[in-house]
Amino acid sequence: MVEVPKSCPYNLIIIPAQSSWYGIWRILINACLFWGYFNDPSHIAFNLSRQTRNEILKSHGREPLPEEVNASMSNEIMVDVLMTIDISLQFITAFQKDAAWIISFMEIFKNYAKSSMIFDMAATLPTLILNQGQNGNESVFWFKMIRLWHCR
What we know:
Layout: H1 22-59, H2 72-90, E1 95-97, E2 100-102, H3 105-115, H4 117-129, H5 141-144
Antiparallel strand pairs: 1-2
């Protein structure tokens, strides 16, 4: 058992070995990543190519292909929101070093910054900030491919 100081900030620290819900959260995040490993490349391959074909057809004076309502767009936004929550949880989740749980906020931040923080933020935040979707900038889907880094 890890002895956590009884001050208020340290009550926020998540110690994975003692948390009953953190394991379920990791399963949910891994399921989202797994779904994204298949959905994001197929979206780039098929939906973005439709956009390119429409631009070519318009430039030649032809009628563009009909726009379909993309049902997976709400799933994309939900996954991005869950990944954003996961990024924020990583800042308060203890990690093990030499069989001891590190619960210092600064050490947790340094550990996350050295591991996957840059990749997580680069894959998640541009799609939320730049308004992905039917009328948004769909080229930000390329940033989601950075999530493949988690496969290592």
